[in-house]
UniProtKB/TrEMBL annotation:
Pfam families in UniProt: ABC_tran (PF00005)
Transmembrane stretches, start-end: none
Domain (ABC transporter) ranges: 2-235
A GO MF label: ATP binding
Keywords: Amino-acid transport, ATP-binding, Nucleotide-binding, Transport
The protein's name in its UniProt record: ABC transporter ATP-binding protein
């Protein structure tokens, strides 16, 4: 479904991604683990079209999406929940959610309305607060809003960057619950998460990243692979 081959990216002269190769299939969570600053967020941003790759290929269901504009990639079925959540100031919860409707092509007005209603039913706390300004929500609610907004667009692939950072344990449970449900509905989720122990429980395969490269890949169900991962990233 998602196939990334020998991906390179730079910020100015800084060679941040140095040949990343990874794959993901429908119905699995694939996690990227590594210390701070190794390039995990950059991998996500490059796939989503926010950072331009210098070389390599990114294929979504066979179509080459590398270097295409971010909104185009979104409409092809790839959603991103960025680390900073990007809740738009001056817009209510509902208006923030409506922005998610622009991220899909080829749906009728009534289909879009239904998609929005479904998401609101699924997030009762957001439904209750739909008239409230998005930026006045708590951190956990803002994370829910960021996830709900991307789900309105019904993506097939979801890139999620550090969703539980700074959040209370109960909200963390809720977020992992949502990730598990989406996975079981057949989405491919590419996850970056510092809480390795929690992430590994929902992950099928993982990639350990160092200095912009994959240093090894493993299966979350394999105890030796997990040991090696914990040794590599020192958790
Ligand atoms: N816009 C930018 N301009 C220049 N350098 C950047 C930019 N964004 C990130 N970098 C640098 O690129 C490197 C990789 O950053 P990235 O955010 O991808 O790492 P990360 O693994 O996600 O880190 P963290 O876990 O701390 O979020 C870092 O050295 C960072 O300082």
């Amino acid at each position: 479904m998602l196939e990334i081959t020998d991906l390179h990216a730079h910020y100015g002269l800084s060679h941040v991604l140095q040949g990343v190769t990874l794959t993901g299939a429908a119905g699995e969570v694939v996690s990227l683990f590594g210390r701070n600053g190794v390039g995990k967020t950059t991998i996500i941003k490059t796939i989503a079209g926010w950072v331009r790759p210098t070389s390599g290929s990114i294929r979504l269901d066979g179509a080459d999406i590398g270097g295409r504009p971010a909104d185009r990639i979104c409409r092809m079925g790839l959603g991103i929940v960025p680390e900073d959540r990007r809740i738009f100031p001056g817009l209510s919860v509902l208006e923030n959610l409506e922005l998610g409707l622009h991220q899909t092509a080829g749906r009728s007005r009534s289909e879009k309305r239904e998609a929005l209603d479904r998401v609101l039913e699924r997030f009762p706390r957001l439904k209750e607060r739909r008239a409230q300004m998005g930026t006045t929500l708590s951190g956990g609610e803002q994370q829910m809003l960021a996830m709900a907004r991307v789900m309105v667009g019904a993506p097939r692939v979801l890139l999620i960057d550090e969703p539980t950072e700074g959040l209370a344990p109960m909200i963390v449970d809720e977020i992992f619950g949502i990730i598990t449900t989406l996975r079981d509905q057949g989405l491919l989720i590419l996850l970056v998460e510092q809480n390795v122990h929690r992430a590994i429980a929902v992950t099928s395969r993982f990639y350990a990243i160092e200095r912009g490269q994959v240093v090894f890949t493993g299966s979350a169900a394999n105890a030796d692979d997990r040991e090696r991962l914990f040794g590599t990233i020192a958790v």
